[in-house]
Design brief:
It is built from ten helices and four strands. By secondary structure, the chain is an alpha+beta fold. The chain has two domains: 2-80 and 199-203, Glutaredoxin (3-Layer(aba) Sandwich); 86-192, Up-down Bundle (Glutathione S-transferase Yfyf (Class Pi), Chain A, domain 2), CATH 1.20.1050. Strands 2-1-3-4 form a four-stranded mixed sheet, with helices on one face. It is globular. The chain starts with a strand and ends in a 13-residue tail after the last helix.
Protein backbone atom coordinates (compact mmCIF):
# COMPACT_ATOMS: atom_id res chain seq x y z
CA UNK A 1 0.00 0.00 0.00
CA UNK A 2 0.93 3.62 -0.46
CA UNK A 3 -0.12 6.40 1.87
CA UNK A 4 0.02 9.87 0.33
CA UNK A 5 0.69 12.06 3.35
CA UNK A 6 2.74 14.82 4.97
CA UNK A 7 4.00 15.16 8.51
CA UNK A 8 1.98 18.20 9.59
CA UNK A 9 -1.34 16.49 8.91
CA UNK A 10 -3.04 14.85 11.87
CA UNK A 11 -5.54 13.27 9.51
CA UNK A 12 -2.62 11.56 7.80
CA UNK A 13 -1.09 10.63 11.15
CA UNK A 14 -4.18 8.82 12.41
CA UNK A 15 -4.16 6.56 9.35
CA UNK A 16 -0.40 5.98 9.41
CA UNK A 17 -0.54 5.15 13.12
CA UNK A 18 -3.35 2.63 12.61
CA UNK A 19 -1.59 0.97 9.68
CA UNK A 20 1.54 0.60 11.79
CA UNK A 21 -0.52 -0.67 14.73
CA UNK A 22 -1.93 -3.39 12.49
CA UNK A 23 1.64 -4.37 11.59
CA UNK A 24 1.17 -3.64 7.88
CA UNK A 25 3.79 -2.43 5.44
CA UNK A 26 3.15 0.77 3.54
CA UNK A 27 5.07 3.27 1.46
CA UNK A 28 4.71 6.92 2.54
CA UNK A 29 4.39 9.20 -0.50
CA UNK A 30 5.11 12.84 0.29
CA UNK A 31 2.44 15.40 -0.52
CA UNK A 32 3.95 18.88 -0.86
CA UNK A 33 0.90 20.49 0.70
CA UNK A 34 2.62 23.77 1.53
CA UNK A 35 3.97 23.93 -2.02
CA UNK A 36 0.41 23.83 -3.34
CA UNK A 37 0.28 20.19 -4.48
CA UNK A 38 -3.31 19.58 -3.40
CA UNK A 39 -4.49 22.70 -5.26
CA UNK A 40 -2.92 21.56 -8.51
CA UNK A 41 -5.61 20.45 -11.02
CA UNK A 42 -3.40 17.61 -12.22
CA UNK A 43 -2.94 16.31 -8.67
CA UNK A 44 -6.66 16.49 -8.06
CA UNK A 45 -7.43 14.70 -11.30
CA UNK A 46 -4.96 11.90 -10.64
CA UNK A 47 -4.94 11.58 -6.85
CA UNK A 48 -7.92 13.10 -5.05
CA UNK A 49 -10.57 15.33 -6.59
CA UNK A 50 -11.41 16.64 -3.10
CA UNK A 51 -7.92 18.11 -2.80
CA UNK A 52 -7.31 16.59 0.62
CA UNK A 53 -4.94 14.26 2.43
CA UNK A 54 -4.54 11.43 3.24
CA UNK A 55 -4.95 9.20 0.21
CA UNK A 56 -4.49 5.45 0.59
CA UNK A 57 -3.64 3.45 -2.52
CA UNK A 58 -4.61 -0.12 -1.75
CA UNK A 59 -2.65 -3.12 -2.93
CA UNK A 60 -5.28 -3.62 -5.65
CA UNK A 61 -4.67 -0.07 -6.92
CA UNK A 62 -7.93 1.44 -5.68
CA UNK A 63 -7.64 4.85 -4.02
CA UNK A 64 -9.39 5.64 -0.75
CA UNK A 65 -9.75 9.13 0.69
CA UNK A 66 -11.10 10.64 3.92
CA UNK A 67 -9.42 9.33 7.06
CA UNK A 68 -12.63 7.96 8.59
CA UNK A 69 -13.38 5.91 5.49
CA UNK A 70 -9.80 4.62 5.35
CA UNK A 71 -9.80 3.65 9.02
CA UNK A 72 -13.16 1.88 8.58
CA UNK A 73 -11.92 -0.08 5.57
CA UNK A 74 -8.74 -1.14 7.36
CA UNK A 75 -10.68 -2.24 10.45
CA UNK A 76 -13.15 -4.23 8.33
CA UNK A 77 -10.49 -5.84 6.19
CA UNK A 78 -8.33 -6.95 9.11
CA UNK A 79 -11.10 -7.62 11.62
CA UNK A 80 -9.61 -5.40 14.30
CA UNK A 81 -10.52 -2.25 16.19
CA UNK A 82 -13.91 -1.78 14.57
CA UNK A 83 -16.02 -2.56 17.64
CA UNK A 84 -16.86 -5.87 19.26
CA UNK A 85 -20.56 -6.01 18.32
CA UNK A 86 -23.23 -4.09 16.42
CA UNK A 87 -23.78 -1.60 19.24
CA UNK A 88 -20.06 -0.87 19.56
CA UNK A 89 -19.67 -0.48 15.80
CA UNK A 90 -22.46 2.09 15.77
CA UNK A 91 -20.82 3.89 18.70
CA UNK A 92 -17.48 3.90 16.86
CA UNK A 93 -19.20 5.49 13.85
CA UNK A 94 -20.81 8.10 16.10
CA UNK A 95 -17.42 9.16 17.45
CA UNK A 96 -15.82 9.15 13.98
CA UNK A 97 -18.48 11.55 12.72
CA UNK A 98 -18.23 13.77 15.79
CA UNK A 99 -14.44 13.83 15.51
CA UNK A 100 -14.51 15.08 11.93
CA UNK A 101 -17.28 17.59 12.63
CA UNK A 102 -16.25 18.96 16.03
CA UNK A 103 -13.09 17.62 17.67
CA UNK A 104 -10.46 17.50 14.92
CA UNK A 105 -11.95 20.09 12.57
CA UNK A 106 -11.84 23.13 14.85
CA UNK A 107 -8.55 22.22 16.50
CA UNK A 108 -6.82 21.55 13.18
CA UNK A 109 -8.05 24.88 11.81
CA UNK A 110 -6.85 26.77 14.89
CA UNK A 111 -3.44 25.08 14.72
CA UNK A 112 -3.10 25.75 10.99
CA UNK A 113 -3.94 29.43 11.36
CA UNK A 114 -1.58 29.84 14.32
CA UNK A 115 1.38 27.95 12.89
CA UNK A 116 1.24 27.82 9.11
CA UNK A 117 -0.79 30.73 7.71
CA UNK A 118 1.35 33.19 5.70
CA UNK A 119 -0.47 36.13 7.32
CA UNK A 120 -1.38 36.74 10.95
CA UNK A 121 -4.79 35.29 11.87
CA UNK A 122 -7.74 37.45 12.83
CA UNK A 123 -8.00 37.59 16.67
CA UNK A 124 -11.79 37.39 16.50
CA UNK A 125 -11.62 34.20 14.43
CA UNK A 126 -9.03 32.71 16.79
CA UNK A 127 -11.17 33.50 19.82
CA UNK A 128 -14.13 31.80 18.16
CA UNK A 129 -12.07 28.70 17.36
CA UNK A 130 -10.67 28.50 20.88
CA UNK A 131 -14.20 28.48 22.24
CA UNK A 132 -15.19 25.67 19.89
CA UNK A 133 -12.04 23.72 20.73
CA UNK A 134 -12.60 24.08 24.47
CA UNK A 135 -16.20 22.88 24.19
CA UNK A 136 -15.33 19.82 22.10
CA UNK A 137 -12.29 18.83 24.15
CA UNK A 138 -14.31 19.05 27.37
CA UNK A 139 -16.76 16.54 25.91
CA UNK A 140 -14.01 14.01 25.24
CA UNK A 141 -12.20 14.72 28.51
CA UNK A 142 -15.37 14.05 30.49
CA UNK A 143 -16.18 10.95 28.44
CA UNK A 144 -12.77 9.45 29.22
CA UNK A 145 -13.15 9.85 32.99
CA UNK A 146 -13.14 6.35 34.45
CA UNK A 147 -12.46 4.60 31.14
CA UNK A 148 -9.34 3.75 29.15
CA UNK A 149 -10.73 3.92 25.61
CA UNK A 150 -13.41 5.83 23.76
CA UNK A 151 -15.58 2.79 22.96
CA UNK A 152 -15.50 -0.49 24.83
CA UNK A 153 -12.63 -2.10 26.69
CA UNK A 154 -9.98 -1.94 23.96
CA UNK A 155 -8.72 0.56 21.38
CA UNK A 156 -10.88 1.09 18.32
CA UNK A 157 -10.63 3.29 15.27
CA UNK A 158 -12.55 5.89 17.28
CA UNK A 159 -9.40 6.29 19.38
CA UNK A 160 -7.13 6.39 16.35
CA UNK A 161 -9.34 8.98 14.67
CA UNK A 162 -9.64 11.25 17.68
CA UNK A 163 -5.91 11.16 18.45
CA UNK A 164 -4.88 12.67 15.12
CA UNK A 165 -3.67 15.99 16.51
CA UNK A 166 -2.99 15.30 20.20
CA UNK A 167 0.68 14.38 19.71
CA UNK A 168 1.86 17.55 17.98
CA UNK A 169 3.99 20.07 19.90
CA UNK A 170 2.04 22.46 22.13
CA UNK A 171 3.66 25.53 20.55
CA UNK A 172 1.83 24.77 17.29
CA UNK A 173 -1.62 25.13 18.83
CA UNK A 174 -0.98 26.98 22.08
CA UNK A 175 -2.90 24.28 23.96
CA UNK A 176 -1.30 22.67 27.01
CA UNK A 177 -3.21 19.39 26.94
CA UNK A 178 -1.73 18.01 30.17
CA UNK A 179 -2.74 21.11 32.13
CA UNK A 180 -6.16 21.64 30.58
CA UNK A 181 -7.45 18.15 29.83
CA UNK A 182 -5.98 15.52 32.16
CA UNK A 183 -8.16 12.65 30.96
CA UNK A 184 -7.16 13.27 27.34
CA UNK A 185 -3.54 13.48 28.43
CA UNK A 186 -3.73 10.10 30.20
CA UNK A 187 -5.51 8.61 27.18
CA UNK A 188 -2.85 9.84 24.75
CA UNK A 189 -0.19 8.28 26.98
CA UNK A 190 -2.00 4.94 26.69
CA UNK A 191 -2.13 5.39 22.91
CA UNK A 192 1.58 6.18 22.77
CA UNK A 193 2.26 2.86 24.49
CA UNK A 194 0.49 0.89 21.73
CA UNK A 195 2.47 -1.00 19.07
CA UNK A 196 3.11 1.16 16.02
CA UNK A 197 3.10 4.56 17.69
CA UNK A 198 5.76 7.13 16.78
CA UNK A 199 5.97 10.89 16.78
CA UNK A 200 4.12 12.30 13.73
CA UNK A 201 7.26 14.05 12.49
CA UNK A 202 9.17 10.76 12.64
CA UNK A 203 6.38 8.72 11.09
CA UNK A 204 5.67 10.71 7.92
CA UNK A 205 7.69 12.68 5.36
CA UNK A 206 8.12 16.44 5.48
CA UNK A 207 10.30 18.68 7.63
CA UNK A 208 8.84 20.40 10.65
CA UNK A 209 7.93 24.07 10.14
CA UNK A 210 8.56 26.58 12.91
CA UNK A 211 5.23 28.04 14.08
CA UNK A 212 4.71 31.52 12.68
CA UNK A 213 2.21 33.20 14.98
CA UNK A 214 2.84 31.91 18.48
CA UNK A 215 1.27 34.99 20.06
CA UNK A 216 -1.99 34.59 18.11
Amino acid sequence: MQLHCFSQSGNCFKVAFFIRHLGLDFEPVFIDFFGGATRDPAWRAGTNAMGEAPVLVRDDGRRLTQSGAILSWLADRHGRCGGGDADERLEVLRWLLWDNHKFTSHFATLRFMRSFMPTAPDPVVMAFLRGRVDAAWRVLDQHLAGRDWVVGAAPTIADFSLCGYVFYPADESGLDIAARFPQIDAWRQRLAALPGWADPYAMMPGARITPRWTDA
